[in-house]
Amino acid sequence: MTQDTPKSPRRPRKIGPAAIAALLASGLFQPLLPAFAAGTDAGQQISNTATATYSETSGGPTIDATSNTVTVTVAEVAGVTAVPAGFTDLDGGAVEAGDTLEYVFDVTNVGNAATDLYIPGVNTIGTENFTPTAVEIIDGTGAVIATVPANGGNLLDAAGINLTALAPDAVLKVKVTGTPAPGTPAGADVGVTLGSTGPNNNSPSTQNQPDTGDGDPAAGNTNTGDIRTIDANPGNGAPVNGEREASATDSIPFASSVRPLALATVTKIASNLAPGATANANDDLITYDLGMSVASSSPNAAFTAADLEGTEIEVDGGDVDRILVSDAIPVGTVLSSVDTANLPANWQVVYTTTPTTGAGSATATGAAWVTTPPAPLSTVTRIGFIYTGGATLARGSAFSPFRFTVETTGLPATGGQVANIAQIFGETVGDTTNEVVYDESGDSNPNNFNDDNTPPDPTGTDYDPTPTTGDTGVADPVTQGTDTGNDNSGTGPDGEDNVVNIGDVAGSDDILNGPDGVPGANGPTDDNDDFTNQTTNVPAGVGPTDGFDPDPEAFDNTVQNPASSGFIADVTLQPISPTQAQGVDDSLLTGQYGADGDIPVGTVVTITATDAAGDIQSAVYTYDGTNFNLTSSTTDPAGPVGPSADPTPEHVNVGDLPAGQTLDYDVVVDLPNGVLPNDEIPIPILAFADDNPTTTPGYNFTGPGTPESTTNVTIERLYTGFMKLTKEVQILDENGVIIRPWTDNQTDIDAVDVLPDYQIEYRITYENISTSVTGSGNSTLTAFDFEIVEDGNAAVGSNTNNWASFTDHEQNTSADQGIVQYFTNSADTDLVPGPLTTSDPIAGTKVDKYENEVGQVDPGQTGQFQFRRRIQ
To answer: How far apart are the first and last CA of the chain?
Structure first.
């Protein structure tokens, strides 16, 4: 049997820890005998715990991270997926009556053992306005190697398909040939569905589903429309997750041709917000990062991906064909600078002062562009980037960042909203109609394709160059929608605006409270969920389930009166619970505060501030699971809230805050002993004008009277380490065939029952679990100098690694980021200290330690490092 199989080295298996967890939860995954190599003492345990180091700031103090300790159990797991893999109209052109059409599907064994498969035939596949004439198995060249019986058949059935079992990760190519059904109306879908899982819409719910509801399993499956697995070796027991099924569907409109189309995508994020020289919001700097790509495959069967070429624009007074990435300078801002140092190779910055609205305006393709920066830069109306490396960009091309910075000179001093949207322009190579290929930022769909992968119009791209009324590139969040996550995940037609809120956008808060130096910061929702992310120390050897007592962690915050006149009286600061914070922030249900139970009972928070008179005030609070109770305070006798001899603890009340004035304060969080590593602990801090500081000091949560209305919340989000390590392992036989996919099962190995030369492959997944950059002005956590250490002889906490003593190095080491160094811990004096090499050594080389120097890991970023060992 000829099948498409992956090239060596093998990539990670497709059944990951989430699927393993689902099997465990359902009771389908049963532990088998522990595995170990013949020739090694029975009862010997192979233990592996990874460690890592990183810092919160570049060159800062080292923070340690320790993974779970892994063991391996082996079980057979079945799995199958099916996806459309190509369409051909043999006579080309439009799909018409009598045409011979071919639909190809890739059916993949995503299980961990070779499997038999049932494939439906011409009488049992699903069709739409289509008459099938053959269902065949083909090889990678398209040659037919087997014909599926009309009513379907098994791979291993001599009277059926009569091929061999499908190996793990192997792909079975199934070709369906036929013609459009007579009488099909123009525009109607002509399609094929291979398999039957219910939705049959290529969604995740059509892939690798339990094969249920198809008759009595003891009597055999009777649904002849399925793609389903069949145990190829039932003598070894059935798969622990049962048999699986999948389906795939593909279609093309009748009387339409498959049109070559360049599929361009432009993306945009606000990557940085820097406060200006004053506390006002009209001198802040916003930096934007743009990116572009040309898709290598089409999301819609009516189009085939093509290369991208330039479209006609005016540059330096002459008309040229160029691929253009453009961004209108947002309303309320002016261009401050363009980052040319990090500009992708073969791209050039262009500028225009052509108006974007009103008299004399033009869209980006109609503007007069120049390569020399106009003086001053504040006169620039659009910034552009053109490709100069050739006439075309091939499918699969991608470039970033195109970075520029604007200043918020046009905003009110108290704040406002900055919205903008990027555009990309070009044409499809070979298109003689010169249709402009066009996309707007805010989502990940090319050519402004809709969320369901339908094109914006029948041509696959829809650009209106009409000045003032066409696609001007001027943002309007009301009509265009917004990319709320600032991550190009917007939904809806066309593109979505990137929106940055600065200062008091809504006008509902007349006090600002935020991270150090950025009181007007905005979180994902509004200025009540801005945040400062920081981490405690984590001692070396503390594993994922080991409690510890971290050192106190200090936060720096700033509160401000953003008004232009007057003052805010009796400004008070206090920590509150997540539930209380949600009650204060009644404008939007933010979801960023977490739950009351996220804060460990016994957490101590100390707030310290220096008031306008120069007096230091400090208050200490202890958390009881529901509230922060004020337990003690110190105030100067000259302070605004009473003498220090007063036995009643007092909140930090800094008195009156004049218009435009800022005040810095400190928050120290001391967590109790026993907290676990990699925990996220959000502590809201409330700043408010206390309306009755003498009789009822503090925020009025319960009455009598109404709560204070001049309020603002910021979040101190404390992590007990923010780099999470997860160790997984899979077992392969002597030929590298996987017999147990990835798992992080914690059960120790009590006995050994695997064949000599079997291989153990270890995978370490690292994740920066801190919240990613959203909103503006927030303080996030980036891991610097991150390095993973896998030492086969090291004691790590309560565990001792011993895998170096019982296994040998095998090739297929891989790392998502950074270099890998290979060490030996041998006592041989002939060996030179230090790493043996940074290239994957040949099998059998004595390697006892691996180090992956990853480097920087941004918030939310994940990566993997894996290496393979052969049991001695």
So the answer is: 34
Distance, in Å, from the CA atom of 330 to the CA atom of 417, rounded to the nearest integer, reads: 10
- Averaged pLDDT score across all residues of the chain: 83
Beta strands 512-515 and 553-560, pairing class: antiparallel
| Topology (CATH) of 512-536+549-719 | Immunoglobulin-like (2.60.40)
Token pair in block for residue 144: 């037919």
Separation between Cα atoms, residue 833 and residue 142, nearest integer Å = 54
| Mean pLDDT, range 86-102, rounded to an integer | 87
pLDDT confidence of residue 801: 84
Q: What is the mean pLDDT of residues 773-797?
A: 88
Per CATH, the homologous superfamily of domain 80-256 is Immunoglobulins (2.60.40.10)
Q: Label residues 782-808 b or e (16+ Cβ within 10 Å = b).
A: bbebbbbbbbbebebeebebbbbebbb
Spans of all domains in the chain: 34-61+723-871, 80-256, 260-502, 512-536+549-719
Bridge pairing between strands 171-180 and 101-109:
antiparallel
Please write down the HEC assignment for all residues of 215-281.
CCHHHCCCCCCCEEEEECCHHHCCCCCCCEEECEEEEEECCCECEEEECEEEEEEEEEEECCCCCCH
> What single DSSP character describes residue 536?
-
- Could you tell me which residues come within 8 angstroms of residue 558 by beta carbon, excluding any fewer than 6 positions away? 513, 514, 515, 516, 517, 518, 519, 662, 663, 664, 665
pLDDT tens across 44-65, in order?
456 678 888 999 988 888 999 8
d(CA 846, CA 823): 8
Distance set, CA 548 to CA 313, 537, 672 (Å): 63, 10, 9
Burial string for 299-310 (b: 16+ CB within 10 Å, else e) reads: bbbbbbbbbbbb
pTM exceeds 0.85: no
What token pair was written down for 466? 């009409």
Is the confidence at residue 39, as pLDDT, over 70?
Answer: no
pLDDT digits (tens, 9 = 90+) for 19-28: 322 332 232 2
Burial group, residue 472, by CB count within 10 angstroms (0-12, 13-18, 19+):
buried
Task: Note the pLDDT of residue 4.
Answer: 41
Cβ-proximal residues to 494 (8 Å cutoff; 6+ apart), any chain: 440, 448, 456, 480
Say yes or no: do domains 80-256 and 260-502 share a fold. yes
* pLDDT tens digits for range 828-869: 434 445 677 888 888 888 899 999 999 999 999 999 999 998
Q: Edge to edge, what strands does the sheet with 652-658 contain?
A: 530-535, 711-719, 680-689, 567-575, 652-658
State percent of the chain over pLDDT 90: 49
Residues in contact with 704: Cβ distance below 8 Å, sequence separation at least 6, in sequence order: none
> Does 239 score more than 60 pLDDT?
yes
pLDDT at 509: 45
Three-class secondary structure assignment of 776-796: ECCECCCEEEEEEEEECCCEE
Kindly report the number of other CB atoms within 10 A of residue 369's CB atom.
24
C-beta of residue 828 within 8 angstroms of C-beta of residue 737: no
Domain 260-502, what fold? Immunoglobulin-like (2.60.40)
Distance, in Å, from the CA atom of 598 to the CA atom of 870, rounded to the nearest integer, reads 43
In this structure, which amino acid lies at residue 132? P
pLDDT of residue 152: 93
State the burial class of residue 668 (Cβ atoms within 10 Å of its Cβ: 0-12, 13-18, 19+). middle
- What is the mean predicted confidence (pLDDT) over 414-438? 91
Do the beta carbons of residue 750 and residue 31 sit within 8 Å? no
CA distance 200 to 578: 43
Pull the structure tokens for residue 110: 């995503």
At 419, list the tokens: 């919205």
